[in-house]
Design brief:
The protein is an all-alpha fold. Helices cover 38% and strands 0% of the residues. Among the domains are: 75 residues, Lysozyme; 65 residues, Orthogonal Bundle (Muramoyl-pentapeptide Carboxypeptidase, domain 1).
């Protein structure tokens, strides 16, 4: 059998030194690298923006506009809200715009709506976002299923037990003067006659009894048996002090009499 021998060099070395320093890239290579990096950055930014928007698509904004203004960018009904997204002037100006939103170009209104969404989510459009079931995707992944937003309820604070008072302070109740006992032998039952200023011209025994008892409990009256304006004023004050509800203030009837004599 004939032999097959390799005619070339068995371990040929490449031309040049073994650890030659690589040459710097050419101008064309640098341009291609920069272009590739820029393209990667642009593509990454585009993907990032798409991911940040999440489920918010052009169709989402179209549905929102239709709900808010029937999709009319020039809407101005005089209710203080303008344009396709129904901005009020304070919000519009807070976003850095001037003039009326309804006079702005559609692209400007779209941009303002997206800026507002980036700041506050769907909160500026509560009714339509709830109606459309929109979900705030600003900080979540597009691939994650998300329940609709719900209001945040702060946790209930535990109730601290009341600390016992170091000392007990007696409660003093101040009340109206307590009627003193009528003089012995005096008729203290109401005789059925209402005492009023009509009795000022007569001297009555029951008026004397009432005046004496009023003096005894601290209401200073002349015990003359005549029921005049001074007696009526004292009777009114007695009713107020004892929280009596009478039909005719200043007239002594069974309620005032009974409170005075303890009957």
């Amino acid at each position: 059998m004939g032999s097959h021998r390799y005619a070339g060099p068995r371990h040929a070395r490449p031309n040049g030194p073994r650890h030659a320093k690589p040459a710097p890239p050419s101008a064309a290579q640098r341009t291609m690298a920069a272009t590739g990096v820029a393209a990667a950055v642009i593509a990454g930014e585009t993907l990032s923006l798409a991911g940040a928007a999440g489920a918010v698509t052009p169709d989402t904004w179209a549905k929102l506009r239709m709900c808010e203004s029937s999709g009319n960018y020039a809407t101005n009904t005089g209710n203080g809200y303008y344009g396709a997204y129904q901005f009020n002037l304070a919000t519009w100006q807070g976003l850095g715009y001037t003039g009326l939103p309804s006079n702005a170009a559609p692209a400007v209104q779209d941009q303002a709506a997206q800026k507002l969404y980036a700041q506050r989510g769907w909160q500026p459009w509560p009714a339509c976002s709830a109606k459309l079931g929109l979900v705030d995707d600003r900080q979540t992944s597009r691939d994650t299923s998300r329940p609709p937003l719900a209001p945040v309820t702060p946790p209930a604070q535990p109730t601290q037990p009341a600390k016992p008072s170091p000392t007990s302070v007696p409660v003093v109740v101040v009340s109206a003067p307590v009627p003193a006992p009528a003089p012995a032998g005096a008729a203290t039952g109401w005789a059925g006659h209402y005492l009023s200023v009509r009795d000022v011209g007569a001297v009555r025994a029951d008026v004397k009894t009432w005046q004496a008892q009023m003096n005894a409990v601290g209401y200073k009256l002349d015990v003359d048996g005549r029921y005049g304006p001074k007696s009526a004023a004292a009777a009114t004050q007695f009713e107020i002090d004892h929280h009596l509800s009478v039909e005719r203030p200043g007239v002594v009837g069974p309620q005032v009499w009974g409170a005075l004599f303890g009957k």
